[in-house]
């Protein structure tokens, strides 16, 4: 069977599976719709959390980014896993003990203020929409490359599926579909990784393989890669170019942001008790770590493979995947030295960085581009980082079913995250805005109806973002983590661990954190992008890492304001005492 | 301070002590070994990896998992101890 037919088959089977599960776990009450009736087993919740967490970005982009960043890519590995330690030790058990439906519920109650709740809702909606638009785009890319449908049709199919099971099943349906999606995505990630590890090092465990010797060569893989890269004028793979303070702050912002992300936190409301909340954080991290420890191995294999299969190879003999991805515009080649061969080197091959294709072909059949060749380096190739994971099985010449499996896995990763995010958004609207703020006498039945309606609206907006992606989608990702780190995380954490922080302190802290982080990012990313380099940054901290400073400002402001305003009332102190008990 | 309040106080302070010591390890393996000391540790090799690089891309993640399970286990014990203490009072 051809790759395309196999992909149709795999995607079809997995979609049928998700829909069957959704129909079997329909939600009947708001408790089932918002938090799956608190009846989810910790292992199932761990898997669902892992699928919820690992998005198209983790599955498709992360290994590619690490592949091109080398050691600096560690910020994502440590940042996106270390947050779970904070979540397990500082937030999850207490929020479960508190036992409501949403994150704004906790902030609104603990700080006895609907203004605080509203600020939390705003942070939540900004963070979640940023994320969901990226997922829809991921769905579109997979459909267009592997099923050869138009990107927009792909987005529409994805929207339809997510809408179907999110509206029908709410949190309950989503949880059990996510369990299935986790199994699909992790299997799809590991199979090619194991194959490639065996091909390159003979070691079937990728985590050990990338520290192993290369087959037919006494060299260790990483030192060989360092050598190849130095020869081509790159920094060695295992050394970094980012400054230590920047790496520190980005990692911290990603960790704190992870712990403050509403769609992850809400998963801990779905388990029966506090002990189960702790356990599911542990299981979630195991399930996540399986992918996150494989990703850096895949990254280094892919980088070596890329050089070995294309460097100094004439375009006419270039592997088929090179031309396939060139066809959809994610690879471009400009023969700068007119020798007909592909050459890699450090630096951007041409200016601007992203290729603009003419509709004509060159002497060797390559797609010609309008960009001017950049002088000062010999690099001739543009490669979009997003293709590394998707193209890896082709680069390593694995059988067609592995390629089809990766496509199904990428869809599982994108759909599971999109569904979780949409649910959080709809809950914030129907529960926090309507039921708790503007329409307090809403009946449960009506609230459920509004929850379903707001998912519909959210799906449509997310789909529009996927079809008409705002140019800044990739850049706004820095927002999501920075904002969560500077607003929600400190507000929740202080709410549990300090009895002094009052309403005024928390609101002022969240607003300062929000405004500072937002304006720093907007200043460098949108207003003065030409100044976005370390000599202009505050203390050399990039916009990706500034959420950490935002968090420090938030803490400082909260304590300062709380010390000059009246302390929280006695009934709040009682609530704090209660959530601290086992 | 009555007996149950004292128990509650004790429970909370042993909880804080546990969380603090686990977070100290969390900080050392990631921010310490993986970022601040990475270049120093890179002079040692560990199963074919430079040691600092290994902590940054592998080791810290394994230790994160272990930390959470140590926490789960210790808290379970602490919960049981506290439950026994409070039933003795009744």
List keywords for this structure.
heterodimer, A: 582 residues, mainly alpha, Sodium/glucose cotransporter, B: 90 residues, 3 helices, 2 strands, elongated, Na_symporter_ssu (chain B)
Describe this structure in words.
The complex is a heterodimer of chains A (582) and B (90). Chain A is mainly alpha-helical and 582 residues long. Helices cover 69% and strands 4% of the residues of chain A. Chain A has two domains: 3-22 and 52-305 and 395-580, Up-down Bundle (Sodium/glucose cotransporter), CATH 1.20.1730; 306-394, no CATH class. Chain A is built from 22 helices and eight strands. Chain B is mainly α. Chain B has one domain (3-89). Chain B contains three helices and two strands; from the N terminus they run H-H-E-E-H. In chain B, strands 1-2 form a two-stranded antiparallel ribbon. In chain B, helix 1 packs antiparallel against helix 3. The mean pLDDT of chain B is 83. Classes of the chains: A mainly alpha (582), B mainly alpha (90). The A-B interface holds A 66, 71, 73-74, 77-78, 81-82, 84-86, 88-90, 93, 207-208, 211-213, 220-222, 238-240, 244, 247-248, 251-252, 255, 275, 278-279, 281-282, 285-286, 289, 292-293, 296, 577, 580-582 and B 8, 11-12, 15, 19, 22-23, 26, 30-31, 34-36, 38-39, 42, 46-50, 53-54, 56-58, 60-62, 64-65, 67-69, 71-72, 75-76, 78-79, 82-83. Chain B: Pfam families: DUF4212 (PF13937).
């Amino acid at each position: 069977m051809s790759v395309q037919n196999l992909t149709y088959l795999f995607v079809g089977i997995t979609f049928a599976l998700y829909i069957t599960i959704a129909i079997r776990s329909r939600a009947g009450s708001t408790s089932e719709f918002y938090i799956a009736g608190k009846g989810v087993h910790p292992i199932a919740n761990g898997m669902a959390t892992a699928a919820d967490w690992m998005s198209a970005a983790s599955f498709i982009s992360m290994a590619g980014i690490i592949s091109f960043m080398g050691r600096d890519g560690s910020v994502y590995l440590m940042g996106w896993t270390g947050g779970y330690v904070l979540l397990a030790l500082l937030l999850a058990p207490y929020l479960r003990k508190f036992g409501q439906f949403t994150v704004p519920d906790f902030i609104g109650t603990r700080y006895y203020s609907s203004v605080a709740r509203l600020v939390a809702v705003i942070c939540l909606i900004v963070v979640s929409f940023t994320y969901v638009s990226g997922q829809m785009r991921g769905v579109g890319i997979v459909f267009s490359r592997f099923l050869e449908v138009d990107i927009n049709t792909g987005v529409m199919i994805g929207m339809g599926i997510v809408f179907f099971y999110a509206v029908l099943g709410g949190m309950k349906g989503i949880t059990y579909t996510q369990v299935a999606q986790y199994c699909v995505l992790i299997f799809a990630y590991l199979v090619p990784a194991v194959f490639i590890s065996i091909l390159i090092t003979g070691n079937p465990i990728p985590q050990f393989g990338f520290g192993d010797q290369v087959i037919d060569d006494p060299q260790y893989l990483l030192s060989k890669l360092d050598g190849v890269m130095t020869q081509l004028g790159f920094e060695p793979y295992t050394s970094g170019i980012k400054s230590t303070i920047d790496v520190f702050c980005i990692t911290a912002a990603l960790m704190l942001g992870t712990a403050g992300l509403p769609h992850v936190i809400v998963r801990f409301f779905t388990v029966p008790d506090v002990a189960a909340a702790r356990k599911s954080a542990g299981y979630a991290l195991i399930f996540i770590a399986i992918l996150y420890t494989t990703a850096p191995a895949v990254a280094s294999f892919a980088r070596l493979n890329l050089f070995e299969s294309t460097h100094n190879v004439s375009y006419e003999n270039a592997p088929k995947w090179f031309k396939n991805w060139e066809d959809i515009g994610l690879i471009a080649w400009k023969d700068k030295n007119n020798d007909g061969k592909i050459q890699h080197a450090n630096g951007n091959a041409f200016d601007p960085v992203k290729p603009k294709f003419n509709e004509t072909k060159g002497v060797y059949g390559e797609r010609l581009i309008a960009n001017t060749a950049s002088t000062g380096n010999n690099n001739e190739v543009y490669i979009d980082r997003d293709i590394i994971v998707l193209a890896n099985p082709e680069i390593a010449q694995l059988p067609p079913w592995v390629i089809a499996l990766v496509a199904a896995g990428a869809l599982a990763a994108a759909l599971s995250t999109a569904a979780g995010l949409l649910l959080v958004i709809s809950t914030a609207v129907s529960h926090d805005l309507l039921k708790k703020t503007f329409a307090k006498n809403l009946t449960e039945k009506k609230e459920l109806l509004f929850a379903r309606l707001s998912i519909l609206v959210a799906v449509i907006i997310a789909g529009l973002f996927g079809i008409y992606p705002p140019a800044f989608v990739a850049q706004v990702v820095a927002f999501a983590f920075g904002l969560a780190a500077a607003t929600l995380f400190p507000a929740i954490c202080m709410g549990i661990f300090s009895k002094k922080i009052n309403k005024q302190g928390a609101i002022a802290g969240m607003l300062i954190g929000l405004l500072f982080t937002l304006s720093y990012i907007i200043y460098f990313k949108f207003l003065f992008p030409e100044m976005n380099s370390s000599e202009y940054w505050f203390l050399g901290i990039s916009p990706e890492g500034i959420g950490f400073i935002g968090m420090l400002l938030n803490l400082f402001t909260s304590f300062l304001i709380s010390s000059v305003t009246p302390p929280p009332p006695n009934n709040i102190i009682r609530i704090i005492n209660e959530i601290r008990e086992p | 301070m009555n007996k149950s309040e004292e128990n509650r106080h004790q429970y909370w302070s042993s909880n804080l002590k546990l969380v603090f010591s686990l977070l100290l390890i969390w900080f050392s393996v990631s921010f310490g070994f993986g970022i601040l000391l990475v270049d120093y540790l890179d002079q040692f090799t560990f199963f074919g990896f430079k040691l600092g690089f290994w902590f940054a891309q592998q080791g810290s993640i394994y230790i994160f998992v272990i930390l959470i399970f140590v926490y789960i286990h210790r808290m379970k014990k602490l919960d049981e101890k506290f439950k026994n203490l409070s039933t003795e009072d009744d």
